Amino acid sequence: MVKVLSMEVWIPRIIDFWRHSHITVIRRSLELVHRWMIKRGEHQNNMEMILKLREYIHLCKATLSRPQLALLQDHDRTDFFYQSVWDTSSPCLLTIDRECLNLLIQITVASISDMLRHQSDSKNLSLASQLDVALQQSMMTFQDTLSSTRSILDFIFSICGSNDQVMVSLQIDILSIYLYLEQQNDNAASSSSPLSSSPALSRTLAPLLSRINPHTIFIYFLERTGMDYELVVDLLMSDETDMLLFLTRYLKYVERHTQEFVQAVDQVLGDADDDSEDEDEENSGIHSVMGLLYQVSAVLQSDIFPYNASVLARRISSVLERLKQAIVE
């Protein structure tokens, strides 16, 4: 009798193909793992998969030099055919391109979300303990990359920023992580931050999550797209992205964390404001973001918007009122 192996058994074996020498094999195996993670629902990661993911991330950081990583982030390089980052006179130690890194980032974020969801499950205490150790080791390899919010945001957007749906999906995943942490701490009355009273695994991820949170990545997204309200409207109208879903959920989160949003604006846009000697209040970062939200709201309530977005428009109005109060305070 032939034994049929489950996907949970196959996935770690598929990850082994990430070290293959042919770029198509690597891309397809990364895509398969990512699609499996999206489709499988609430089934948790297995330990072997997490360890293999950690090992591959460590391999990338240990193998790729800064100039090679910069080449992968160069948007003059096409994604349509593979261009090695290795000099022709040097052996190719790792076959990888920007699309591979793009998928790797998405898989990593999805894995973090899964690990947090299952860390307190009584059936998975041993797994949570092992994940804690694995993530401790992984975070150590990221110390240089986590040195600033801007550096890690720059990296993510240089790799994933050319695909609107990927960027929106990443923001949804990161928001989901914080919504879980918020729910986890609902009974902690003294908690001022979702990370303050989290279990061990959450604290392990704190250095990463403190820099990549729903506010910083959304504000950076707005900055990188030129604070263009028309682009936001286009994404809301598009059936190729989940921008409407994300923005509705995210603004509800902003209503509960308005002060953190204002602080994130200062954190992400502060450098740009400091560069302008004639910066006035109306052109400050928070007022630029508020102006964009106001313009989006105006379009949503106009006749030119193709469907009823009154719920989102009301949410934007509520957020704008809270932001006005936060600025005064």
From TrEMBL:
Protein Lines N-terminal domain span: 56-263
Family matches, as Pfam families: LINES_N
Name the record gives this protein: Protein Lines N-terminal domain-containing protein
